[in-house]
Write a structure and sequence with these properties.
alpha/beta, Rossmann fold, six-stranded mixed sheet, binds adenosine-5'-triphosphate, binds magnesium ion
Length: 310
């Protein structure tokens, strides 16, 4: 949990991530987003498909060069060109778990080698025995058995594969794990198991999570704070309690109204609120932005294009 005196582990300030689509059109996938993640806490990022959640995750871990803005991680500026030491620190201290473990695990590699890859790349052991011991320990931590190390990804269930994904991130002893829809592909019962495992691991290791998801009920369960994203803008951020008890933005209200209630009497009377940003009275598109069919594609000048997609 966050300690008020802590300094943020991750501080994202005015992050912009634009992509060229064609001609003079760019998509402002992430537009001026700022938030902080404190050591050991879970920050949930929610929003509909295409709102820019994955793009934020990928910019933060520097799979992209941000168009603009500042990203501070563990007192290092990681938004610009990084020197070797900073790059190394980022590659070990920040890890990512992906939505589809089958697609992200090399089918021709044994589970032990998949999990040990980060250790191999960063030379994080003195001997092969130490390496194997680390892999064995991490397999146990995520609820798998040491003998699983010699099997291949297709020999596992979806839930087990996601445990492998978690083990692979965890073995690096990261300060921050970005989990992009890491439970969305799993059965609901397995989702709860994996989320509980992630919570236990957090208790034990103190790692922070940037937890990206559609499903607000799981986000509510795991997050200390939540940010609500829409069309690349962070509309609202607050503690989980604030967002659920007292949502301010109409889009947040509509997201919350879409969650089914467990009580059938309440559920029967539930009405989902619709949200139309065009009539919301909120200016998403300051300046000359031109919206195409409700998206955030904008036409820009040649100078803007050169600046934004350098
Ligand atoms: N590399 C890219 N090139 C061009 N456009 C992109 C690129 N990556 C993302 N986009 C666009 O940016 C917007 C945000 O995409 P993103 O994948 O971040 O959304 P998301 O919130 O993760 O959605 P989902 O919930 O479906 O995963 C979308 O309009 C998408 O088409
Ligand atoms: Mg996504």
């Amino acid at each position: 949990m966050q300690n008020k005196t802590d300094k943020p582990l991750l501080k994202v300030e005015g992050l912009k991530q634009y992509f060229k689509v064609n001609g003079n059109f760019v998509v402002k996938a992430v537009d001026d987003v700022s938030f902080e993640v404190y050591p050991g806490e879970t920050y949930g990022l929610v929003g509909e498909s295409g709102s820019g959640k994955s793009t934020i995750g990928r910019s933060v871990i520097r799979l992209y060069d941000p168009t603009d803005g500042k990203i501070m991680f563990n007192d290092m500026d990681i938004s610009k060109r990084m020197n070797k030491a900073t790059n190394n620190a980022l590659r070990t201290q920040m890890q990512m778990i992906f939505q589809d473990p089958m697609a992200s695990l090399n089918p021709r590699k044994k589970i032990g080698d998949i999990i040990g890859e980060g250790l191999d790349i960063h030379h994080m052991y003195q001997s092969n025995e130490e390496r194997d011991e680390k892999i064995k320990r991490i397999l146990q931590k995520v609820g798998l058995a040491p003998e699983h190390a010699t099997r291949y990804p297709h020999q596992f269930s979806g839930g087990q594969r996601q445990r492998v994904g978690i083990a692979r991130a965890l073995i690096m002893n990261p300060k921050l794990i970005i989990a992009d829809e890491c439970i969305s592909a799993l059965d609901v019962s397995i989702q709860a198991q994996v989320v509980n495992l992630m919570k236990d691991i957090q208790q034990e290791t103190g790692t922070a999570y940037l937890f990206i998801a559609h499903d607000l009920s799981m986000v509510k369960y795991i997050s200390d704070r939540i940010g609500v994203l829409h069309l690349g803008h962070l509309l609202e951020t607050g503690t989980t309690e604030e967002i659920f008890e007292n949502p301010i933005h109409p889009y947040t209200k509509s997201l919350l109204s879409a969650i089914p209630a467990p009580n059938p009497i309440v559920e029967k009377n539930r009405t989902a609120l619709t949200y139309d940003y065009r009539s919301s009275g909120i200016d998403y598109t300051k300046g000359t932005n031109h919206l195409i069919s409700g998206s955030h594609y904008v036409k820009c000048t040649d100078e803007e294009l050169a600046k934004w997609t350098k």
